[in-house]
Structure formats: C-alpha cells, structure tokens
Amino acid sequence: MNWNQFIKKFRKVLNKKEQKELDELLDKVKKGKAIFRWDIKPEYKLEWKDGEYRVYQHEWQGQIVIRNVPNKEYLLYIKMGNRIRSWRFDLDITKYAPAWAFYDGTISSKWWDWEGCIYPRKKDKVRKKDLKRCENKPKRKNIHYNPTEELMVFRTLISKGKLKYAIVKENDREFIFLDVKTGKFKGKYLLSQEEEGSEVYYLETITQFEESSKFEYRLSTDGEVSILFLEYYDGYITFIINGDLIQLVDYEDELEAMKYYTKDKTIKIKNKEFKIVDKGDAIVFIDNEAFCKFMLNGKYLRNYYIASFLDDIWIIMLMKHVGDAFEDIKPYKEPKIIKVRNHPEWFGIELYDGRLFTKSESDYKKYMDIEPIDGLIAIYLGQYPVEGTLPHLKVWRLIFDRNKISEEEAIKWVKEQKFVDMDFIQKKEKHK
Predict the structure, then answer these.
(1) Strand 139-141 to strand 116-119: parallel, antiparallel, or no bridges (unpaired)?
(2) Quick one: which of 304, 249, 253, 244 has its CA closest to 275?
(3) Can you give the residue ranges of every domain in the chain?
(4) Tell me: the pLDDT tens digits for 7-62?
C-alpha cells in the first residue's frame, strides 16, 4: 500500500469535519508549513564505557522426522558495570549481521563463563546419546535456557573479549553502540531497540561512530532539483537529487540521484538557483561504492535513508525494518514425496529444500487458519533471515498418514491451499 492509497483508505473512516482537517494538514505539509515528525535520534555525544562480552551457542537435536540438523540459538552477554545484559539471536552473530534479537534482561553472573549441558524439564527421560555426550561436562537445570521435556541443550562459548559501549535513549527507545575490540565478534555495531518498551532489538554493523556530523539541504527555486551535503571526514558526501527529498514520505517512493565526494559546498548547476531549506545533525552509518545509509535530524528531514547504486544511477529511499523474502529461497518445481524415518505408515511432502532454513517449527496455527484435511499429522515452517526485518517463515514440509490419505490426494490438497506461496514474518514473543 503506497502513501496515496493509505490516505484514501484512512479518509473513509473519518467524518466530514475530520476529512476537512486532514486535507488542511496535508496541504500544509505539501507547502512546507507543517511536517510529519519521525522517531529519530537527536543530536548527542557518545559517552563510551569499558565492558566485556561473551557469545554462546545453544544446540539441541530434536526428532529426526522434523529436520536432520540440530537447532541452534546464540546468546550475546554484555557486562555493563556490575550488570550482565543478555540478548538471544537465531543467527551466529560472529558470522552474520544484521540480525534480530530478543532481550533477555539481566542475568546471573554464574552464567558468564559457564559451558556445559543444560538438563530438560524431565531430567530422568534424557536420551542416552545426550547423556553420553555430556559425560565429562558440567551440567545444570534451567527452564529458561532449556524449556524442552526430554532434550539436552549443549552450551558452548564461541567468542569473548573486551569492548567499549555507549548508550543513547530517545523517547525511551534504546540505542547501544558497540566497539568490539577482540574475538570473533570484533567490529563496530549498533544494537537498536525496535520501539519503546519492546524486547526486540536489531543488530547491524556500522563503518564509523559519527558523533557531530552536519548536513545541509538545498532546493532549486523551481523545486525540480535538490542537493544534499553530508559531512564526512574532511569533506562531504554530496547527492544531486532529481526531485525534493522533503516530499519523500512514502516507503514505496524513490528518487534518482548522482553521488560525489566534494571538499566544499560550491557546486553549481546550469540554469538553476538554490536556497538552503534545511540543515541539522547527521549520522553516516555505512558508505561505499554501492551503498550509503544515513540519518538526518533537521527541521523537515528527520528519518533514516538508504541510497543504492543501481544501473548507473543512485536511488534514494526511506529505510524501514521490513524486507522481502530472499530470492534464494526457491521451491521445488513440483512437491516432493519423502519417506518418514521410523514411521513407515507416514509420508511427507516437501515444498522446499530444508537446508535453506536456519530453524524449523511446527506450531503452524500461530500463522495460518486452515481446516486440516483428514490424515494431516503436521505442518513444518522453515525460518530464514531477511535483512532489515524479523526472520520470515515458509511452509516447507507436511506429514501425512497414508492409512487415511493417498499421496495423490495429499498433493492435490497442498496445491489447492497454495502453501508454496505463503510467507510469514516471525511473531514476536516474550521469553518467559
């Protein structure tokens, strides 16, 4: 849904008086006499503090029928003064970023340097092969880290070291800058709280920690061309934009531009006169030959922006934490019939190669409301990462009882339900 479609839809729920007020507000916005204010970080100075970190991997092996690879999750601990704060990831953050996380809060120091095996709820029903793997390892029971009934969780330290951190808060939304000095997790990161009060955070790499950059925005008198100057080291990142950046308020819209590096702000364009219409603080998170991500905090320009180099031109868009599915996640040309190990009376239908996914879950009722056909035993959703948003899920495997339904009937039903086209965004849940 684009901006104009949203406005039309929104107008339908308003009475005539409210519609008139909305039209007056939109007219003021168009003329630059009013602005929509975005949730953005104001000018700030980073106050760095020394800290330490740990990254742990938790691994457990479920039923072979689900997926013949172990489940994994990753925990980031950061020691901030006398507190240890914890975040939980689905991806190995020593290898992959960006990544979404759930905040676990403050944890006990007894977990800081502890590796070993974590017992399930039913300690007496642990599988023999799990007990054998844990023979010479420390063991503990913890429902938070292992909520399963019978599976052992294996906990391994994969990175540790020193870091510096700086915390910025805007409208009770937290931004944590991390400068990690040592270990596999070495690098510069920004850990952003999704929204006020949320337990969801977003980890991304950044190229520099810019504390007091400025920007200047000029618009031609005919409104056709604009110039954006971003302070960057000893010069400027300069965009000459075909259009007015202030009018870029819809996530579906984009503007074409040319990008240069200049030492000053003396650019002139033939037959065009410019006036300064906005200026303020800026942060350049990433800049290279193909991509630029920055934040502007002025009177009118108050948002995150991304610029991408496509087909010999730069495209500027508003940045949002919503993404499309990876193009690499492609289904089989036809549903694939598989045997179910240890259950000869069952059969499976696969729509995707299970190796494409980082995790599998069977609670499909959280995401879809369907009338199950007689003979359906389970539906498995495969989880995969999407840059800039929560992980997505696709229906990748279904299990049926061949005593109640034939393979041909099951394939026909699967195609009728169009499972292969379904794509879901992972639901946010609190960790109890």
Answers:
(1) parallel
(2) 244
(3) 49-205, 212-318, 336-425
(4) 665 666 667 777 777 777 666 555 544 444 333 334 456 789 999 999 999 988 76
The residue type found at 178 is L
The Cα–Cα gap between 157 and 151 comes to 20
Cα(62)–Cα(384) distance, integer angstroms: 18
> Which candidate, 139, 137, 136, places its Cα nearest to that of 118?
139
- What string of DSSP letters covers 225-271? EEEEEEEETTEEEEEEEES-GGG---TT--EEEEEEEESSS----TT
Q: What is the largest CA-CA distance in the chain?
A: 83
What is the CB-side half-sphere exposure of residue 267 using CA atoms within 13 A? 27
DSSP letter (8 states) at residue 365: G
> For residue 237, what are the CA distances in angstroms to 220, 227, 263, 278, 303?
19, 10, 9, 16, 17
Q: What's the token pair of residue 25? A: 């507000």
Range from 119-133, 171-185, 286-300, 381-395 that averages highest in pLDDT: 171-185
* Residue 188 half-sphere exposure toward CB, CA atoms < 13 A: 7
Which ranges of 38-153 would DSSP assign to H, the alpha helix? 128-133
Structure-block tokens of residue 426: 């992972």
Q: Which residues contact 143 (CB under 8 A, 6 or more apart)?
A: 121
Tell me, yes or no, if the pTM score tops 0.85. Answer: no
* Count of Cβ atoms closer than 10 Å to residue 268 Cβ: 8
Q: How confident is the model over 25-36, as pLDDT tens digits?
A: 666 555 544 444
Say which residue the tokens 């950061």 belong to: 78
